[in-house]
Write a structure and sequence with these properties.
Elements (H helix, E strand, L loop, with lengths): L4 H40 L3 H24 L4 H25 L1
Helix pairs in contact: 1-2, 1-3, 2-3
Length: 101
């Protein structure tokens, strides 16, 4: 247990940051999962509304990743890696449709 004032404050700050980081990471995982789900749904049934869903979910996930990196929840390379995964999945789904058209 903390004995002095500064160590007690550090414990409080660490807990505050842990909760903030947890909410960011949880929201990030949710948005990424939504994007991957939208990609698989578009692969099953291509359509204009499904394509719009893929693009909006990707934009939301990119925004959340950028904010998490800016706040310091994620390292910038981790954020770039996750954005690369998302854009690769989206490109894999959308490119064959563009080639057929």
């Amino acid at each position: 247990m903390a004995n002095n004032k500064s160590s007690k404050k550090r414990i409080e700050i660490a807990e505050r940051n842990r909760l903030r980081n947890r909410t960011y990471k949880s929201a990030l995982r949710t948005l990424m999962k939504r994007c991957f789900t939208a990609c698989s749904a578009y692969a099953q049934e291509p359509g204009a509304d499904a394509k719009a869903a893929v693009q909006t979910t990707m934009a939301a996930a990119f925004s959340k990743i950028d904010k998490a990196v800016k706040v310091g929840v994620l390292h910038r390379n981790t954020g770039a890696n996750q954005k690369s995964r998302l854009s690769g999945a989206v490109k894999k789904v959308l490119e064959p449709a563009a080639a057929e058209a």
